[in-house]
């Protein structure tokens, strides 16, 4: 069968080329296709079996001007190239979209075919020549006429030259007299183009979905809040951490305008228009640093939200690594939270004391922050580049404390290290030593310490060599040293040596105004983004906090562990606060000594940490961990202590090789212990 013949007449060379390609692809096996464009010039007389015009306009513009001789003249109908439909479907719902074509009729017919194709989620606005401004329009769509779009439009989508629709193709098939088989093959080709495209779209969509799930999972593991905003000001990424901070559901906010989700003008202004890279904000009671980064190429803003505490910690870690020295202070005066006048006054005095070289005795109730002050004083002193060593005198037995402080020579006692060991006084040379709980040291250690202070030199235990030392001594106690001097358990001469400068730290009761500030600080520091209900705050304001800030801290820690969602309520209060009051406190306080309390807290903490990882803790395991702590306990000693703790209902021991688990009462008891002693 000889091929039929067809001449295509289009308006522009670009349209001619696209339509010629379409016809060749669909009909090329059966029809010989020639083509002309009016803007390139058309022969004076045209003769063919079929003359196919690309549009009504092409027909109107050229038909009258040339001699046309054809068996059949067809004016084609055109539709949007399916390849570009996904671009249109990706425009956000309800957006205003300017439709730009080279004449008004063509524009209207393009809008019609877009609606017919089901692109009806946006509002199309027809472009009119001469009108340069369209209110609230940021996106334009054009079939290859993008040069006509007003220049202020942010996003221009070129949907390419529109192609002939299926009815035009079938009309050509019919005129060529092609048989049924061929005609159905051609329609299949037309349809398979669409199916192929849909398949690609489907894969692309599936890949995009997998990628987005992957990104969400990755973002879920990050400790910071992460937000991404696109050029329209809509949210494209909002991780769960951020959702917790703003008390919203992460699923609900994607695609919404930023200002509809965060109704904080200061924050949205900073994100959208900010020139700075980072800024502090208080968001629902949490101090946060927001870092913003503009990705120019994608016109996207990436924002991270970090707890102030974390941001500082990162800074501090870097500094520490730079200093790369073994013994350093962990706190400075800025870490001591307190705006109450009495506290401000204490900090002022402490700063002055820091600058002298004399020993300082810090007194105050348990948990008031004496250790914190000791760190800050060293950090503020002329010795700040020297070492700072802290030792808790009540946590060590007499012999251990002596050997820790003054060191020993080789062979002094069984188990002594080869080559002897330097004591903390030697290690703290040119720096500061902080002796916490000084009220608990024995009379033997007291006299040894007195000698060191009087002579400014030490002699290791079992040694003869005299080692001069240059160490500033800061001590602290919550005990009544005057009372101890009266009953003879603390040496008066040592007291006067230590108490050259005295600093009294007020209890939390004496500075209640600081309670809300401390709560906020402790929550921020925990890295959790939660809100504390008003009645909890009220309760905290009237409770008398015998364990001071340490008790407040462990109560908050406990509540943050048990609270559901992002709100701390009164039902999250530990048992001893909520229901039984002080009676439980005194029941708990049955421990003989601070050392016993600390040991118990250590054991329970190890068990709790293992349980949190889904494991139980064996005696051997706890014993081996104890070697790295201040309490070296053998598996037998651990067994005895676990028996007692089990009898009190704080742990449950497994049979045979199964390890131990902490009970709910045990967790609460642990927090109580932590509020009473520093571990
Ligand atoms: N002003 C404060 N600001 C922030 N945190 C504080 C403040 N005071 C105390 N803390 C925190 O409370 C806890 C107890 O503080 P610290 O160990 O310094 O108390 P202490 O007076 O030395 O107690 P003790 O007499 O029992 O040894 C620590 O975790 C400390 O970080």
Automatic annotation (TrEMBL):
Sigma-54 factor interaction domain sequence ranges: 336-561
InterPro entries: AAA+_ATPase, AAA_lid_NorR, P-loop_NTPase, PAS, PAS-like_dom_sf, PAS_fold, RNase_R_HTH_12, Sigma_54_int
Species of the source: Peribacillus butanolivorans
SUPFAM superfamilies according to UniProt: P-loop containing nucleoside triphosphate hydrolases (SSF52540), PYP-like sensor domain (PAS domain) (SSF55785)
Protein name: AAA family ATPase
PROSITE patterns: PAS, SIGMA54_INTERACT_1, SIGMA54_INTERACT_2, SIGMA54_INTERACT_4
Gene3D superfamilies: 1.10.8.60, P-loop containing nucleotide triphosphate hydrolases, PAS domain
Signal sequence interval, chain numbering: none
Highest taxon listed in the record's lineage: Bacteria
CDD domains: AAA, PAS
Keywords on record: ATP-binding, Nucleotide-binding
Domain named PAS: residues: 211-256
């Amino acid at each position: 069968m000889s091929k039929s013949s067809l001449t295509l007449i289009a308006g522009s060379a670009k349209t001619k080329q696209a339509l010629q390609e379409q016809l060749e692809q669909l009909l090329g096996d059966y029809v010989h296709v020639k083509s002309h464009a009016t803007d390139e010039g058309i022969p004076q007389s045209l003769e063919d079996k079929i003359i196919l015009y690309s549009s009504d306009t092409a027909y109107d513009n050229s038909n009258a001007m040339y001699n046309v001789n054809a068996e059949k003249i067809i004016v084609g109908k055109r539709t949007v190239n399916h390849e570009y439909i996904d671009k249109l479907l990706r425009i956000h719902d309800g957006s205003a979209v300017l439709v730009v074509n080279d004449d008004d009729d063509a524009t209207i017919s393009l809008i019609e075919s877009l609606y017919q194709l089901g692109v009806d989620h946006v509002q199309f606005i027809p472009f009119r020549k001469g009108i340069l401004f369209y209110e609230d329009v940021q996106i334009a769509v054009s079939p290859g006429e993008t040069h006509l779009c007003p220049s202020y439009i942010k996003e221009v989508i070129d949907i390419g030259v529109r192609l002939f629709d299926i009815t035009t193709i079938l009309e050509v098939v019919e005129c060529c007299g092609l048989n049924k088989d061929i005609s159905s093959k051609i329609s299949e080709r037309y349809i398979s183009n669409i199916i192929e495209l849909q398949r690609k779209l489907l894969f692309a969509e599936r890949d995009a979905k997998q990628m987005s799930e992957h990104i969400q999972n990755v973002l879920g593991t990050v400790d910071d809040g992460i937000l991404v905003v696109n050029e329209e000001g809509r949210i494209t990424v909002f991780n769960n951490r951020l959702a917790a901070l703003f008390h919203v559901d992460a699923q609900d906010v994607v695609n919404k305008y930023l200002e509809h989700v965060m109704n904080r003008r200061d924050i949205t202004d900073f994100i959208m228009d900010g020139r700075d890279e980072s800024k502090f904000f208080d968001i629902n009671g949490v101090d946060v640093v927001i870092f913003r980064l503009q990705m120019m190429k994608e016109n996207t803003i990436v924002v991270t939200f970090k707890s102030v505490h974390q941001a500082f910690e990162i800074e501090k870690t870097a500094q520490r690594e730079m200093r790369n020295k073994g013994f350093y202070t962990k706190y400075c005066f800025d870490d001591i939270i307190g705006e109450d006048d009495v506290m401000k006054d204490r900090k002022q005095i402490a700063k002055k004391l820091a600058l002298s070289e004399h020993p300082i005795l810090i007194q105050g109730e348990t948990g008031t922050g004496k250790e914190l002050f000791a760190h800050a004083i060293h950090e503020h002193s002329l010795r700040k580049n020297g070492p700072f060593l802290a030792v808790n005198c009540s946590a060590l037995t007499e012999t251990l404390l002596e050997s820790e402080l003054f060191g020993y020579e080789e062979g002094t006692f069984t188990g002594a290290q080869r080559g002897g060991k330097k004591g903390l006084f030697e290690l703290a040379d040119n720096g500061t030593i902080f002796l916490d709980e000084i009220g608990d040291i024995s009379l033997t250690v007291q006299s040894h310490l007195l000698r060191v202070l009087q002579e400014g030199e030490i002699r290791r235990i079992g040694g003869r060599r005299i080692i001069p030392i240059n160490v500033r001594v800061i001590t602290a106690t919550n005990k009544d040293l005057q009372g101890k001097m009266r009953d003879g358990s603390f040496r008066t001469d040592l007291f006067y040596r230590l108490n050259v400068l005295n600093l009294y730290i007020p209890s939390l009761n004496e500075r209640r105004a600081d309670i809300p500030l401390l709560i906020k600080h402790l929550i921020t520091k925990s890295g959790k983004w939660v809100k504390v209900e008003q009645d909890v705050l009220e309760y905290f304001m009237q409770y008398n906090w015998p364990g001071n800030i340490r008790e407040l801290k462990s109560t908050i820690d406990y509540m943050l562990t048990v609270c559901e969602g992002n709100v701390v309520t009164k039902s999250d209060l530990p048992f001893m606060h909520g229901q039984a009051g002080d009676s439980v406190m005194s029941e708990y306080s049955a421990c003989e000594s601070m050392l016993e309390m600390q040991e118990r807290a250590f054991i329970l903490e190890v068990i709790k940490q293992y349980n949190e990882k889904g494991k139980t803790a064996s005696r051997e395991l706890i014993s081996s961990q104890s070697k790295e702590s201040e309490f070296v306990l053998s598996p037998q000693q651990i067994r005895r202590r676990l028996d007692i703790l089990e009898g009190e209902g704080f742990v449950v021991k497994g049979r045979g090789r199964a390890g131990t688990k902490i009970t709910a009462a045990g967790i609460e008891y642990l927090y109580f212990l932590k509020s009473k002693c520093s571990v």
